[in-house]
Amino acid sequence: MSVSAWLEEFNETLDVSGFRHAPARSVVPYVQRYAAQAGAFVEGRRDGERELVILDLRTGAPQRPFYPIKPAERIGILFVREDVQPFVTMLRDDFPDTEHQLLVPEGVPATICIDDRPWGEARLTWTPAELIERILSWFHRAGRGELHDARQPIDPVMIGSHLSFYIARSVLNEADQDLIAFHRENDGRMLRVERAQPSRYPDNAEPFSVVTYRVPPGNMKRLKYAPDNLARLSAMLEERGIQLFHDLKQRLLAWVDQGEGATWRLHGRFAIIVEMPVVSPRGEQQDGIDHRAFVTGKTAGDIAVGLGVAQPSGGHGKVGYVRTIGAGAPDEAAIADIEIFCAEVNLAFEPDLAARLAGRGAPDGRAAVLIGAGAIGSHVADSLAREGRFRWTITDDDRLLPHNLARHVATGTRVMDPKAEVLAQHLNSINHVAHCARPIVANLFESSEKGEEIEKAVAEADIIIDATASVAAARYLSDHPAAARRASVFFNPAGEGAVLLAEPAGRTLTLRDLEAQYFGLVLRTEHLRDHLGRRAETVAYTGACRAITNRIPQSCASILSGLAALGLSAALDGEDAAITVWSLAPDGAVSVEAATPEAVTAFRAGDWQIAFDAGLIRRVHVMRDAKLPAETGGILLGLVDIPARRIHLVDATPAPHDSCEELSGFVRGIEGVSAIMDEVRLRTAGQIRYVGEWHSHPPHSSARPSAVDGVQIDWLAALLDMDTMPALMLIAGEGETAIIFADQKADALPQEPSVRGA
């Protein structure tokens, strides 16, 4: 249909005073009084409730426009209803196909998209001036090639269907399957498409028989119009490599031959869903996939009759249709009379869509084991699952109690259920892919059959996430022989901070190493002085003395968990280790403290392992250099795990003020040491303790222990033997560092060459 034929539908000519729609009445006076330099009013027309304001606008097109936009274009502003945004149509037959155009039925002029806001929002600021400005802006961008969105949206008013289909990509991708679409209860517009299991659906649910097709990228051509009948849809798909009628004959005949089992299908309204690549007006493939539903007003049986493969049974039998004997010819007139309407298609929330919505190119299908399904564990898993991340195994032996609902993703209906089951089912309910998460209701240290199940999951995992807030659990996971990369997330005691420790991809650092360096960050960062020292108020939730929980609002738990999930995503997408602390102020401000994880050197002395990081060695040598040529020293602070026989040096203090720092030796003083240790215990919640001494040697001297050092190490041995710990001394010499153990032979584990043991 030409533009002139379309205009003939508007058979009533209007002057300025003849418009019934208030917005239409306001546009003409505005153009005449205030926008004469931009264009001129030509005439008004009406067709029933539809009113058309016809203008000639000066487009401002450049001399060589990107698209063949003329210096002046005749447009029609179509007003349909007060509650519908006006449509802007281009009133020439050869108007170019561009980005930002609506997909319209054949015979409707090209219709540009000038506003992507819903009309309910746009009308709040709508004025004739804004309308004309948006149209001119569209022309300006079209002439300069600045229109970029190649999708072709549909408008329910223009297309004629308010239906919206919901389908999972996993369902869409399976060919030759029986699909059914049915209305949501009390909502006639939304249709859920599923694999057909008719016995599951209530009798009052109107079924739609659905078939799906995918247009191969190589066959895709941009649509010029939305087909408005079955014959035109068939022609459109045939141009794109799909023989619609040939396929439908086979499908529908198979349904007829099924007999009573296909009764619901043959009597359901018929719809076709097509997946098509997005193509620009210049034929270029764009990023993204488009999905269109084409809905008929006929049943599948009626279409089978039109295609000549079936005929009405004349009241015989329950099916209502029987196979046509012989090769029946399609009734072309009947097929052309079968109207179709475009409808929206909403893809189910699956990993592909989740990843794209999160700004990622593809889902993350790595196997993750989450240990701990409490507050931070449930929120972090919820966030990551919504980003299309991981195949989950959830491990926890705890049950959901009423007070847990204050800071958990669970609902009250799940109280007393195992947390692992609650969280796994929650993740599965988010994601349309079945069984993206599975629970193991067991303690990490379980030795039963459940323990074996945990061991198997950990051994097969790509990622292990500790969310237990348990030091013992984190260290157990750190020492586990599995190959998976590990991370740990937890709140601080006051619930105003969140911590992320993430191992590097090659596990050259472990959670134990990162734990020690995290404590070092807390010790050396003034902003984190109360990070571990201040605790939240507690609330008793039963009469038992240990049945208490922290008073932490969900708003804080949610924010901090989101930050932890964000940091965890970034870390696991990269290769490097991470140590990050987020702190949330009462006014909502967030501060971030991060440490660059340092390489770790380890020694073994007897059955003890001693480790320290490169940052500690640098800090010791900085303190040595500051006092040269005199000797200096101080105390060593470390993280001790007595059952595991491990010490990780965390920091070294400078010399107390009453120390004797001379060219020939160093004697550590005691002034302020007690206060320092009290501060260390407060800032680290008692985790960091005194583990030994350090001192420097003069310029040009090695780190080899002297006779005086031997006397001191004997004194240390006697002191630390009370705690069943080895005597430990660090000596900083010229370009090297020595670790000294009393009466122990130190065997170096993989380490840096500038550090030696003695």
TrEMBL record:
Q: Which residues form a coiled coil?
A: none
Q: Where is the JAB domain?
A: 615-714
Which keywords belong to this entry?
Answer: Hydrolase, Metal-binding, Metalloprotease, Protease, Zinc
Domain spans labelled THIF-type NAD/FAD binding fold: 369-483
Pfam families (alphabetical): Prok-E2_A, Prok-JAB, ThiF
Q: Which InterPro entries match?
A: JAB_dom_prok, Prok-E2_A, ThiF/MoeB/HesA, ThiF_NAD_FAD-bd, Ubiquitin-activating_enz
Any one GO BP annotation for this protein: cyclic threonylcarbamoyladenosine biosynthetic process
Q: Answer whether the UniProt record assigns the keyword Nucleus to this protein.
A: no
Indicate whether GTP-binding appears among the record's keywords.
no
> Recorded GO terms, molecular function?
metal ion binding; metallopeptidase activity; tRNA threonylcarbamoyladenosine dehydratase; ubiquitin-like modifier activating enzyme activity
- In Swiss-Prot or TrEMBL terms, this protein is called Thiamine biosynthesis protein ThiF
Give the organism the record lists: Skermanella aerolata
